[in-house]
């Protein structure tokens, strides 16, 4: 059964400098791509006066070449199937769109259909423009998306379905098998618990002579909060913030997680604040670090080096090691589709339904390296390798916690505030207890300023 009343964000998690997703996420690292020559408001009108066609615009932020690869043939077929609808594809990088979307919404020039974030449904600039999709899309349509994915989408403060998740990006453990062998570890038995993860990081550092685990602590990319936050989610079995955006992690279980991260610090790479996930992937690929927690966005970096069958490569991919409570919990982010104008809602919903069809969504996922959302995607040869099942199984079977700030008009502010604290923890400037207290105060401060 679908979870209604949805809020979106990606991985993949984004702030102004984030180029992701993931996840990822929604976390695309593409350079700025070209804009279309006209703003969305110039392209959007109910009819064009010639044959009564409805004109709509669609934007999937990201690398233009990747977007073109799946979007252009999809729209060509959609227009053939729906001759009463004209669709204009707009192109914009994630970085460009993050900078532009507030003023675009405020000016009313936003595209009709947008690939959005699951933690920005309450964003102050976009919230009032979102279209309720329940009257246009069927229960059967919604039910094809797994319940575990719907559970990531916040339902507070909305009275219906406003967002359709199209990709889900879970964090998994990547590891270099050759580094494992050099450290005397079994490359076919990756760490399955926190204790095993810590022991492996220590052995890699001491016996193989390279950092045991890479930590993405770069400023402004949201990734450090997701790294630390995932361990907190696992230990507390709770989101980072409650539905009033107050911290839930200032507990004994939260302290257990932060202390564990503190124990990892001696085994991370030098100058951790200079590294995001993108900078750490070449280190893992080349044996410069033993392990890395990352999403499916990282797959392309390794298939480019070793071919698409990573099962036979030196890169291993395993489920996230479990906390001492033994609960199967992982971090995940989603991106998906929203419609933004009531006057073109019916046409926009038809396009969303088409973009979510199995034959189109698989091309989208293949273009971006996203993990499969539908089980039918595994029929494609590119998804028949075992490592893809790791992402899929986590998304289907684990309890998932995702991006923070979903109930706030300023979600990015929480990432910024918590990142500053977690950086001090990783750099050894704060101990676990002080870091936990400072993080809770930082989150409370953001919430207080929003009131």
TrEMBL record:
<protein>
    <submittedName>
        <fullName>Maltodextrin-binding protein mdxE</fullName>
    </submittedName>
</protein>
<dbReference type="InterPro" id="IPR050490">
    <property type="entry name" value="Bact_solute-bd_prot1"/>
</dbReference>
<dbReference type="Pfam" id="PF01547">
    <property type="entry name" value="SBP_bac_1"/>
</dbReference>
<dbReference type="InterPro" id="IPR006059">
    <property type="entry name" value="SBP"/>
</dbReference>
<feature type="compositionally biased region" description="Basic and acidic residues">
    <location>
        <begin position="35"/>
        <end position="51"/>
    </location>
</feature>
<feature type="signal peptide">
    <location>
        <begin position="1"/>
        <end position="22"/>
    </location>
</feature>
<feature type="region of interest" description="Disordered">
    <location>
        <begin position="28"/>
        <end position="56"/>
    </location>
</feature>
<keyword id="KW-0732">Signal</keyword>
């Amino acid at each position: 059964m679908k979870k209604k009343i949805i809020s979106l964000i990606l991985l993949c998690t984004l702030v102004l400098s984030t180029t992701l997703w993931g996840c990822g996420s929604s976390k695309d690292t593409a350079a700025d791509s070209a804009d279309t020559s006209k703003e969305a408001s110039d392209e959007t009108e109910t009819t064009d006066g010639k044959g009564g066609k409805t004109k709509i615009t669609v934007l999937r932020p990201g690398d233009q070449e990747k977007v073109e690869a799946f979007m252009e043939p999809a729209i060509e077929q959609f227009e053939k199937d729906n001759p009463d609808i004209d669709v204009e594809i707009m192109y914009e990088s994630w970085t460009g769109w993050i900078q532009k979307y507030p003023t675009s919404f405020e000016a009313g020039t936003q595209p009709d259909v947008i690939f959005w974030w699951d933690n920005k449904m309450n964003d102050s600039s976009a919230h009032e423009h979102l279209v309720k999709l329940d009257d246009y899309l069927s229960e059967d349509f919604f039910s094809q998306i797994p319940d575990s994915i719907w559970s990531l989408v916040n339902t507070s403060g909305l009275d219906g379905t406003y967002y359709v998740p199209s990709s889900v990006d879970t964090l998994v453990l990547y590891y270099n098998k050759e580094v494992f062998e050099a450290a005397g570890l079994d490359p076919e038995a990756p760490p399955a618990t926190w204790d095993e993860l810590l022991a492996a990081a220590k052995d890699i550092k001491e016996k193989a002579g390279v950092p045991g685990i890479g930590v993405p602590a770069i400023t402004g990319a949201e990734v450090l909060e997701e790294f630390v936050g995932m361990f907190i989610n696992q230990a507390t079995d709770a989101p980072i913030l409650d539905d009033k955006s107050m911290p839930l992690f200032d507990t004994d279980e939260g302290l257990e997680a932060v202390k564990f991260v503190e124990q990892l610090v001696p085994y991370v790479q030098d100058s951790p604040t200079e590294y995001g996930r993108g900078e750490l992937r070449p280190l893992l690929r080349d044996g410069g670090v033993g392990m890395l927690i990352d999403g499916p966005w990282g797959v392309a970096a390794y298939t480019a080096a070793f071919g698409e069958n990573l099962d036979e490569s030196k890169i291993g991919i395993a489920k996230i090691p479990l906390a001492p409570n033994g609960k199967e919990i992982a971090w995940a982010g989603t991106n998906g589709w929203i419609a933004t104008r009531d006057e073109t809602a019916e046409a926009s919903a038809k396009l969303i339904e088409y973009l979510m069809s199995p034959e189109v969504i698989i091309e989208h996922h293949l273009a971006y390296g996203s993990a499969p959302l539908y089980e039918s995607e595994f029929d494609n040869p590119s998804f028949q390798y075992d490592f893809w099942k790791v992402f899929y199984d986590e998304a289907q079977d684990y309890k998932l916690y995702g991006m923070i700030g979903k109930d706030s008009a300023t979600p990015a502010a929480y990432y910024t505030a918590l990142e500053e604290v977690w950086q001090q923890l990783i750099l050894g400037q704060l101990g676990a207890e002080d870091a936990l207290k400072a993080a809770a105060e930082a989150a409370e401060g953001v919430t207080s300023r929003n009131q």
